[in-house]
Design goal:
The protein is α/β, with parallel strands linked by helices and about 160 residues long. It is built from five helices and four strands, in the order E-H-E-H-E-E-H-H-H.
Amino acid sequence: MEKVAEIEYLDLEKNVEYEDIIIKVLNKCFEVEGFENSKLYISVTLTTPENIRKLNKKYRNIDKQTDVLSFPMFEKQEIENLKQLQYEEALGDIVVSIERVKEQAVEYGHSFERELAYMIVHGFYHLMGEDHIKDEDKVIMRKKEENVLNKLNIIREY
């Protein structure tokens, strides 16, 4: 498998544990979607609530913190053709607020690993053209997310 992620930190210290979780999850996402032999990778930025708020305001015109942002490089109908790429190409960008991941892990009563893994798989499926605005689309997206996490045995802890 080629590299699946380019991980950067914006106002945070580098953390190998975070990187291990991200790589494991993205490897499984690419495998499940049949992209394990592609030249695609994802740019992942781990940052603070303040920085993600600025990005949310700049790109979505929403002036509030969020947990994860996704910036796809391709339209949904283009993605299948990317399996045959002969050169490295970014599928898109995922930006994660690590502080929100920690808060939500506590709020939802599960591990930090589970919450970070969920943010990454959620962002991945946005890059793949999935959405959750309509209820029927949300059901499809959640099923895909849970499938990846279950294959990794990263399950909800109640």
